Amino acid sequence: MPDSTPSRILDELAAILGPRGLLTEPADIAPHLSDWRALYRGAAFAVARPASTEEVAAVVRLCAAAGVPITPQGGNTSMVGGATPDESGRHLVLSLARVNRIRALDPLDMTMTAEAGVVLKAAQDAAAEAGCLFPLSLGAEGSATIGGVLSTNAGGNTTVRYGNARELMLGLEAVLPDGSIWNGLRRLRKDNTGYALRHLLVGAEGTLGIVTAAVLRLFPRARDTALAFCAVADEDAALALFRRFRDRDESAVRAFEYMSGTGVDFCTSHIEGVTLPLEARADHYVLVDLASPRPDAQLREMAESVLFEAMQAEEVTDAAIAANEAQAQKIWRIREEHPEAQKREGASVKNDVSVPVSKVPEMIRRCSAALRELIPGSRPVPFGHIGDGNIHMNLEQPEGMDPAAFLARSHDIMDCVNAVVRDLGGSFSAEHGIGRLKTDMMEDWRGGAELAAMRAIKAALDPQGLMNPGKVLP
């Protein structure tokens, strides 16, 4: 603990939080100091673990009075270092893990009120037990929390049908930088009463306040589903197949995911139990997930019909339709295990970018060519949500190259991808956020009036700059 942090802060935190609510031993603090990708390792003098919104507010008020910076943390699954403190040791990490109750679930209103520490998978399960669906789904759903996915406006696999986290939230409760509690937990579809503060906090990555609870939108559960794994001729064929399914029944398309042959090869090579459900490998694949609340939607028949048309047009070269839920889950693993498979293959650089849906094939081709030219022997691994324009344009190190030397080129690689993305009217961060990794890009991409407005909002709500400093704003 630095000299500038008086010991009385720890005493007061202990009084607020009790014996279970404060971690001060280095071994207990350590898991909270590094991000999932191990890009950053910070320092903190303690980890606060409040068990209620009132305790969160008390901690924030104490830190505001003492000038102590706070790093809020949910499931610590950020891909951009958004929940990692800096190296100064001045920060208090504030974990929301114990603020984890589902306060209410109303199948008639189709809403769930969940606290920030509720794990995403637990929210999904609670909705399912009530005969409903909470559709937000992503690879880290077993660890990511409601507060975290809202603070980053997470997207995920079903954005093409249900939207990002922002679209799945009706109301919010948060502790503001001065320690006051804002209760905006309204279960209303219509509430036209001034500024929508809830939307300001969603996506702010904890820089404007700490989300403590939210009213989430629920949907009717699926009563008919179909899932297909397809080999497609190229990137254009992948997008053409998406259009075919969308034109047939847009409301049935729950997810539409693109994967390169290289990425799928990594998965089948490194992940136990992952196998290719087709007779031969291909250079391009698509996963199509269909769902409907209507039990008579005949989605399998629709999938067979659309795929037959696509094969006639030589867009699809082979396809397999899951016969049951177990097969569907096994196919989904091919997509979900991409990050882990890339990690096991070697060092990789992540590029979470988006372009207009119509530009996705061009983006993949141009970025792949530019990356191979930038680092000869490197292996592009594009995959992701082609249906909403968000592709993870990742790059795997050349075989035999020193991983550290490859990772030292990270910003060159990101700049290479971003040059193409900008030319196509896209964004340098689609769903992972800014965190610590991409703050240096904000001036170039969001400078001028937009960034000035963000800074003015930050200064108005957090004049001391204590809320997750070093994130989002350059």
From TrEMBL:
<dbReference type="InterPro" id="IPR051264">
    <property type="entry name" value="FAD-oxidored/transferase_4"/>
</dbReference>
<dbReference type="GO" id="GO:0003824">
    <property type="term" value="F:catalytic activity"/>
</dbReference>
<feature type="domain" description="FAD-binding PCMH-type">
    <location>
        <begin position="40"/>
        <end position="221"/>
    </location>
</feature>
<dbReference type="GO" id="GO:0022904">
    <property type="term" value="P:respiratory electron transport chain"/>
</dbReference>
<comment type="similarity">
    <text>Belongs to the FAD-binding oxidoreductase/transferase type 4 family.</text>
</comment>
<dbReference type="Pfam" id="PF02913">
    <property type="entry name" value="FAD-oxidase_C"/>
</dbReference>
<dbReference type="GO" id="GO:0071949">
    <property type="term" value="F:FAD binding"/>
</dbReference>
<dbReference type="Pfam" id="PF01565">
    <property type="entry name" value="FAD_binding_4"/>
</dbReference>
<dbReference type="InterPro" id="IPR016164">
    <property type="entry name" value="FAD-linked_Oxase-like_C"/>
</dbReference>
<dbReference type="InterPro" id="IPR016171">
    <property type="entry name" value="Vanillyl_alc_oxidase_C-sub2"/>
</dbReference>
<dbReference type="InterPro" id="IPR016167">
    <property type="entry name" value="FAD-bd_PCMH_sub1"/>
</dbReference>
<dbReference type="InterPro" id="IPR016169">
    <property type="entry name" value="FAD-bd_PCMH_sub2"/>
</dbReference>
<keyword id="KW-0285">Flavoprotein</keyword>
<dbReference type="InterPro" id="IPR004113">
    <property type="entry name" value="FAD-bd_oxidored_4_C"/>
</dbReference>
<dbReference type="InterPro" id="IPR006094">
    <property type="entry name" value="Oxid_FAD_bind_N"/>
</dbReference>
<dbReference type="InterPro" id="IPR016166">
    <property type="entry name" value="FAD-bd_PCMH"/>
</dbReference>
<keyword id="KW-0274">FAD</keyword>
<dbReference type="InterPro" id="IPR036318">
    <property type="entry name" value="FAD-bd_PCMH-like_sf"/>
</dbReference>
<protein>
    <submittedName>
        <fullName>Hydroxyacid dehydrogenase</fullName>
    </submittedName>
</protein>
